[in-house]
Amino acid sequence: MTEATPMDVSLDAFSLPLAAPLSTAAGDITERRGYLLQVECAERGVTAFGEATPLPGWTESLDDCRAVLDDARDALRENDFDRALTVCRDAPAARHAVSLARADLRARREDVPLYRHLGTSTARETLPVNATVGDADVDETVARARDAVDAGYPCLKLKVGVRSVDADLGRVRAVREACPDVALRLDANEAWSREAAHRAFDALADLDVAYVEQPLAAEDLAGHAALRDGHPETPVALDESLARFSVERVLAEGAADVAVLKPMALGGVDVARYAARVAERRGAAVTVTTTIDAVVARAGAVHLAAAVAPNRAHGVATGDLLARDLPTGGDERPLPVEGGAVGVPQGNGLGFSVGSIE
Ligand SMILES: [Mg+2]
């Protein structure tokens, strides 16, 4: 569907320093670089925003993202979102920017918050989030866990797989003893062999773990299915696997109880919303997470989560990982995190505007 009114389109590069260096599979990173897409429909006086923040290993490169967005810009000037999305089909981060700008534009025209546009009729002012406890020795892990529970977080996410299985089991056991009621999620980021994973799952059976994320290599769907068969008390969530396989395939192979949806890696909030619907139909749960994005993409993820799974804790409270964010103006920062929940913006569309980037 081509809408005729021409649009003003701007694309601005940004670079945001991280609060602390982050180690990823593709090496340490100290900043997040990406593009802010702004589309303005002058005739209707509506401005909408999208964000592309590529992450090596998950999306196209920064250079490829720029090239694709430059191509898509011509289609956007003609207000042809369908053509722009086609141009971006093999570049998830670029496609994310275009699809979010389209959704934001439509929601602003409808005078509704984005999460309402994305498919829920229920008002939602806050969304539970998980605290990222990360990897540390036992004492530090327990200290971080206690701090998060004291701050009101209903759910903790521990990184496992950096240390030995026995060391990780000691950490998980200590956190479970210190915080008996909190929901505990573990993320192994593909670190375990099948043998190590079965040993870990044996020991986790009585520790009431909400799920283990990506215990095995992304391509090992059969291994994950076998883990689920052998250990029904500990659910399996898949994250990296969804960058390689469709959610239909992952669930058809019985490889996951939970689908971890990263809109930036999947190619947009529309794609992620579709994946959430597939998961729901197949009885799987979803967790929405960011890829340490700037505020526009984080807001997109918050709205999506509020639309598809508002009662679950999501991995979207990642703003503190940035030392600086895109300028949003106003006195209040969008997406405040308090008491283990993030505020869901209630204004039209994303709920805020972004100022000019220095
Ligand atoms: Mg993960």
Which SSEs are present, and which pair or pack?
Elements: E1 8-24, E2 27-41, E3 46-52, H1 62-77, H2 81-87, H3 92-109, H4 114-117, E4 126-128, E5 130-134, H5 138-150, E6 155-159, H6 165-178, E7 183-187, H7 194-204, E8 211-213, H8 221-230, E9 236-238, H9 247-252, E10 258-261, H10 263-266, H11 269-281, E11 285-288, H12 295-308, E12 337-338, E13 341-343
Parallel strand pairs: 5-6, 6-7, 7-8, 8-9, 9-10, 10-11
Antiparallel strand pairs: 1-2, 2-3, 4-13, 12-13
Helix pairs in contact: 1-2, 1-3, 2-3, 5-6, 6-7, 11-12
This protein binds magnesium ion (MG).
Residues 187, 189, 213-214, 239, 260 line the site of magnesium ion.
Tell me about this structure:
The protein is α/β, with parallel strands linked by helices. It folds into 2 domains: 8-111, Enolase-like, N-terminal domain (Enolase-like, domain 1), CATH 3.30.390; 126-343, TIM Barrel (Alpha-Beta Barrel), CATH 3.20.20. Helix content is 36%, strand content 21%. The protein has 12 helices and 13 strands. The protein has helices at residues 62-77, 81-87, 92-109, 114-117, 138-150, 165-178, 194-204, 221-230, 247-252, 263-266, 269-281, 295-308, and strands spanning 8-24, 27-41, 46-52, 126-128, 130-134, 155-159, 183-187, 211-213, 236-238, 258-261, 285-288, 337-338, 341-343. The strands form 3 sheets. The protein has a 7-stranded parallel sheet. A 3-stranded antiparallel sheet has the order 1-2-3. A 3-stranded antiparallel sheet has the order 4-13-12, covered by helices on one side. α2 runs antiparallel to α3 and α6 (165-178) runs parallel beside α7 (194-204). It is globular, with a radius of gyration of 20 Å. The mean pLDDT is 95. Magnesium ion (MG) binds next to loops.
